[in-house]
Design goal:
This protein has 299 residues and is an all-alpha fold. The protein is built from 12 helices and no strands. The chain has a domain of 199 residues: Orthogonal Bundle (MetI-like fold). α2 packs across α4, α4 runs parallel beside α7 and α4 runs antiparallel to α10. The radius of gyration is 23 Å and the shape is elongated.
């Protein structure tokens, strides 16, 4: 009996529809999607959304509380900082920095880690031993300590912090991909491709890489939150983004001295970081459920 198969485009369409259906059924995933969409829009259109220039100072409005307070003003919805700068505007512009650093650093780490994992898992032998010992060396140092050393060497700056977070965050991807490649090498389709003489580069890119992408995407979505926290931590310590650029980490660092007098200076950027990390984790869980074949019969 001849078995008929659905066209690839129809299969992809069904998978997309199934993914959106799971998104709508999951309250946490829906919440995460809404938060990320709003943050992305705020970052893209910060110049139009922000009510004030985030760097403009107004000393008469110094430490002005949010608008809902009795001493607040509708002109400063979320209050002002110690220099009279608008908190809402700085949060909006800070979203641009946090999301761009998170996306760029994760993309760099994903590229490096996936490449190392593919090479180590497929070629094995001395190549695998050398690359895995390099991974062990990176694991021997705490992540934040290693990032601090690199930032102290390279200096503060947006480009430097992306590079540092990228080159210090590739290890989980390398270990994940290597383990999956070692398993895939024993699969029938890989053995058959090797038997007919498929070149190594084509084997890796065409037959192995597509089978590990789902796990890599899930890990990357979960790592974005970690990278945002790391960027905020480095900026909080004075080794991240320069103070002149509004970021959530800078707002936390400057607001800690006014916690008892002006709680909104540190609380509001802290809430922004928490919401962003929660949203990326919720989306990561949703992607895991959608892309993990072992869960498809359960969900």
């Amino acid at each position: 009996m001849e078995v008929t198969r659905e066209p690839l485009s129809l299969t992809r369409r069904k998978n997309i529809q199934r993914g959106f259906s799971m998104l709508l059924r999951s309250r946490t995933a829906t919440f995460g999607a809404i938060v990320l969409i709003l943050l992305t829009l705020a970052a893209l259109f910060a110049g139009r959304i922000a009510p004030h220039d985030p760097a403009k100072q107004s000393l008469p409005q110094r430490l002005q509380p949010p608008a809902w307070s009795s001493e607040g003003s509708p002109d400063r919805l979320l209050g002002a900082d110690q220099l009279g700068r608008d908190i809402l505007s700085r949060l909006v512009y800070g979203a641009r920095i946090s999301l761009s650093v998170g996306a760029a650093a994760v993309l760099l780490a994903t590229t490096l880690g996936t490449t190392v994992g593919l090479v180590a898992g497929y070629y094995g032998k001395w190549m695998d031993a050398f690359l895995m010992r390099t991974v062990d060396m990176f694991l021997a140092f705490p992540f934040l300590l290693m990032a601090l050393v690199f930032m102290a060497t390279l200096g503060a700056g947006l480009r430097n912090i992306i590079i540092v977070l990228g080159i210090t965050g590739w290890v989980p991807y390398a270990r994940l991909v290597r383990g999956q490649v070692l398993s895939l090498r024993e699969r029938e389709f890989v053995l058959a491709a090797e038997a007919i003489g498929v070149p190594n580069a084509r084997m890796i890119l065409r037959h192995i890489l597509p089978n590990v992408l789902a796990s890599v995407i899930v890990l990357a979505s979960l790592q974005i939150g970690t990278v945002i926290i790391s960027e905020s931590s480095l900026t909080f310590l004075g080794l991240g983004i320069p103070p002149a650029i509004p970021t959530w980490g800078t707002m936390l660092a400057t607001g800690r001295d006014y916690v008892t007098r002006a709680w909104w200076l540190a609380t509001l950027p802290g809430l922004a970081i928490v919401l962003t990390v929660l949203a990326t984790n919720f989306i990561g869980d949703w992607l895991r459920d959608v892309l993990d074949p072992t869960l498809r019969g359960v969900l």
